[in-house]
Amino acid sequence: MKKLTALLCAAALAATLAACGSQTSSAAPTATPSPTPDASAEQPATPEDGTDAAGTGESGTPAVTEPDAELSALVDSIYEKYTPELMLMTNAIDLSDASWVSYYTGLTDTTGIEAAIASETAISAQAYSLVLVRVAEGTDAAEVADRMAAGINPGKWICAQADQVMVGAAGNIAMLVMADSGLSVSAQDVADAFVAAAGEGASAWVPETVGEAQGIPTGDDTAVQPVE
């Protein structure tokens, strides 16, 4: 009888440990120190030789490009006016790498683009992205912003999707913000902060098309929730 009791206790303990292990594996993902998104089929490939797209990094160590100072300062000003409760990282977008440009900005043509940066979460399962692009003189920033929205994939994250998308323009700056309303972050509030931080002449609006180049039907409410 004692042996049977001992066996039953051992079995119960093993079941408990297994349950704990399951809970641990399903816990919320932790932040990753990598400034780039996790590798997946939807994301651009990293060069095999370990260099960046321009080939300036040492073998096995990609070169890191510093974010554009003007755009980075504007991101800081935006977050001073509205701060998403997320762990955010602001990184330069390498304009020489078409795959990364498309992933972050939705653009397939960088003609007239001088610099671009992206502010996204350090957790790949959180759908939030703020992208600023500086355009050259003679290039319409508002038109670029609409092209960004039309080409971006609001479901580019591993297991999350943005249901709020807004764009904006201020002088030679185009803005795109995407957010998952389930994160308690508002694309409208970020867009309003952009307008306030950018100053006179800045504006923000809901784009007519989002993800059209990704095969998402125009007006598909399951893809993007209009922001009032």
What are the low-pLDDT stretches, counting only 5+ consecutive residues below 50? 1-41, 46-62, 217-228
What is the CA-CA span between the terminal residues? Answer: 70 Å
Q: Order of strands across the biggest sheet? A: 1-2-3-5-4-6
Number of strands: 6
Taken as a percent bin, the fraction of beta residues is 15-25%
Main β-sheet, in a few words?
6 strands, antiparallel
Task: Please give a structural write-up.
Strand 2 (113-121) and strand 3 (128-135) form a beta hairpin. Strands 1-2-3-5-4-6 form a 6-stranded antiparallel sheet, sandwiched between helices. Helix 2 crosses helix 5 (187-198). The chain has helices spanning 2-25, 69-81, 98-105, 141-151, 187-198, and strands at 88-92, 113-121, 128-135, 164-170, 173-179, 203-205. The protein is globular, with a radius of gyration of 22 Å. The chain has a domain at 67-218. The chain contains 5 helices and 6 strands; from the N terminus they run ααβαββαββαβ. The protein is α+β, with helices and mostly antiparallel strands. The termini are far apart.
